[in-house]
């Protein structure tokens, strides 16, 4: 089945815009590809270093050059719940590779930080930049040229986008992404959010808050809300970089291990040494990128991907824009209600039919490109399945259920939760911004109110504690863009603004910073571009200025005469406190080089 005309038209627009960059990119990866194992070009001294620590049988296999070798890029650390399960994956992958007639080596590790730990802390100012560091760290591991394919072990917010950028930079190599899966369900996310609000109001203490948080985040695996980490997993499956049915199987289960072994076997099968060579850079094309955006809208996914998808696409020579994302949002219905867009978590989503049901519904509605390449090799229809553990311990697949297991969580395309996607682009005299509407009630999507201006989230927090945030207002938090301080997430603002909204005030947020993928409820125009430090008009907003945010019409306006706005001087705050501490001094070059949010907020010139 072909994609609908409107989806095809947007794809063609992206294809035409991207043609020069895409052709140059494909030329580069074609030049890097070869029929022989890459290590065959290494000198004897090079190769001896490359397998010095291997056992005798692996050395013999690698010496001949005819046995495929997988490079494992791992984001393992045992502090992050989502990445802790990866501790055992390399041994499992190595044994599965040997059993299948290949070799696997850990090519390198990449950093993995947790935005949940650094929320509101100085370390959060490294978070967005960590994506590009991850891409570079993966490149160092793969630069040894010992590998015929790469498998990537990563889950969370910046890790997967960084690994995708690396995989596409080494686009002549096949790439298979292997997830670890979500933790089992704990304290429901809405109950956790209530305790957070009570703590912010001083109605419960730190002990009660920590108890609630610990019951919610309680074991190995990805956090169960539908934030950036789980949006990553959705993207990898709908873009064909995961095995069918792999994304949301819990860690530590027999099915999870069987999927990891199968992913290893598939990575070996699609190298240039076999008959199903599937280089990542050719596999991921404009259609794959559009499929990812469609999935993001259909599930009400993370706003962070309005930045990450642009940077990921650019790594493959593809020019994706906010306007493309916005136009696709107009065409794609919302089919999932997972916290913060609903009360369910990702385990409930998976149990209701999960990715298989979602992909089948979107394909049947003509909202996805079916004729794409995937690591599975059979087009996207092969992903409309449920994965189960067979009696022999291998993975079995059957067709996705005809009906959702819970239509309050996962709806059919004929009865969507809303006719359009969960993200919109706003435009106006402040520039461009992004808003996530899927978790915002319709009667809260338009607000006209005076501005309350702050140059940090601490400023708003202090005003809240002082009781001065009265009446309706739009909070403007500026100097939070990538050039100013690395564009940290400002997630803790949602608790404060949520309390005020629950009290009956009409409030909204406008910022050149980011919000968490788990944010919702309060209308928030984020990623305002150009940012204040880059001459953006948001730097000219004053306390009391009337503003209008209209998420229905897609507008963000400062209601000040144009002539007056031109003459106003921009604010010039002291940002020196951003320069040092928690490693921030090491990232001064990144802050200097980084591009705009609407071009991926990356330091890489190709984007």
Automatic annotation (TrEMBL):
This is Phosphogluconate dehydratase. The gene is edd. PANTHER family: D-XYLONATE DEHYDRATASE, PHOSPHOGLUCONATE DEHYDRATASE. One of its GO terms (biological process) is D-gluconate metabolic process. GO terms for cellular component: cytosol. One of its GO terms (molecular function) is 4 iron, 4 sulfur cluster binding. [4Fe-4S] cluster binds at residues 156, 223. Belongs to the IlvD/Edd family. HAMAP family: Edd. It comes from Manganibacter manganicus.
């Amino acid at each position: 089945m072909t994609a609908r005309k409107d989806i095809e038209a947007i794809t063609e627009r992206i294809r035409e815009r991207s043609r020069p960059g895409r052709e140059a990119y494909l030329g580069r990866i074609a030049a890097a590809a070869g029929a022989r194992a890459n290590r065959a070009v290494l000198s004897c001294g090079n190769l001896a270093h490359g397998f010095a620590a291997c056992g005798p049988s692996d050395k013999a296999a690698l010496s001949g050059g005819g046995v495929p070798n997988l490079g494992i890029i791992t984001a393992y650390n045992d502090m992050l719940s989502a990445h802790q399960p990866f501790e055992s994956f390399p041994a499992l992958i190595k044994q599965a590779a040997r059993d299948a007639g290949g070799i696997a080596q850990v090519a390198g590790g990449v950093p993995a930080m947790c935005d949940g730990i650094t929320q509101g802390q100085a370390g959060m100012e490294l978070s967005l930049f960590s994506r590009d560091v991850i891409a570079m760290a993966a490149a160092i591991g793969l630069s040894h040229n010992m590998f015929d394919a790469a498998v990537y072990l990563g889950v969370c917010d910046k890790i997967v986008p960084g690994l995708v950028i690396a995989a596409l930079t080494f686009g002549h190599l096949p790439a298979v992404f292997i997830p670890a899966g979500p933790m089992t369900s704990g304290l429901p996310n809405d109950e956790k959010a209530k305790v957070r609000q009570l703590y912010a109001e001083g109605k419960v203490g730190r002990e009660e808050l920590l108890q609630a948080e610990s019951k919610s985040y309680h074991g190995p695996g990805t956090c169960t809300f539908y934030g950036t980490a789980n949006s990553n997993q959705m993207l990898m499956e709908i873009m064909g970089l995961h095995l069918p049915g792999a994304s949301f199987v819990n860690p530590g289960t027999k099915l999870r291990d069987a999927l990891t072994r199968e992913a290893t076997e598939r990575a070996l099968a699609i190298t240039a040494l076999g008959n199903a060579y599937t280089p990542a850079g050719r596999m991921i094309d404009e259609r794959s990128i559009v499929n990812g955006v469609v999935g993001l809208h259909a599930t009400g996914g993370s706003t962070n991907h309005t930045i990450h998808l642009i940077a990921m696409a650019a790594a493959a020579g593809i020019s994706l824009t906010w306007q493309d994302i916005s136009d696709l949002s107009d065409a794609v219905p919302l089919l999932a209600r997972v916290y913060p867009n609903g009360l369910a978590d990702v385990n409930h989503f998976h149990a209701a039919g999960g990715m298989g049901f979602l992909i089948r519904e979107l394909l049947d509605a003509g909202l996805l490109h079916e004729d794409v390449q995937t690591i599975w090799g059979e087009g996207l229809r092969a992903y409309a399945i449920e994965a189960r553990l067979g009696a022999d311990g291998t993975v079995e697949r059957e067709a996705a259920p005809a009906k959702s297991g819970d239509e309050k969580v996962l709806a059919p395309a004929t009865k969507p939760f809303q006719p359009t996607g969960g993200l919109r682009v706003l435009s106006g005299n402040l520039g461009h911004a992004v808003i996530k509407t899927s978790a915002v009630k319709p009667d809260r999507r338009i607000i006209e109110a005076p501005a309350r201006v702050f140059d940090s989230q601490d400023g708003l927090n202090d005003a809240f504690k002082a009781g001065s945030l009265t009446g309706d207002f739009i909070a403007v938090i500026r100097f939070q863009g990538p050039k100013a301080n690395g564009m940290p997430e400002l997630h803790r603002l949602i608790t404060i603004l949520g309390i005020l909204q629950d009290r009956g005030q009409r409030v909204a947020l406008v910022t050149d910073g980011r919000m968490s993928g788990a944010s919702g409820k309060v209308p928030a125009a984020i990623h305002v571009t150009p940012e204040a430090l880059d001459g953006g008009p948001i730097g000219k907003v004053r306390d009391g200025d009337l503003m209008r945010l209209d998420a229905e019409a897609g507008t963000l306006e400062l209601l000040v005469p144009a002539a007056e706005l031109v003459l106003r001087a921009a604010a010039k705050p002291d940002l020196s406190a951003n320069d040092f501490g928690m490693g921030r001094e090491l990232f001064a070059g990144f802050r200097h080089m980084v591009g705009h949010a609407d071009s991926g907020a990356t330091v890489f010139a190709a984007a």
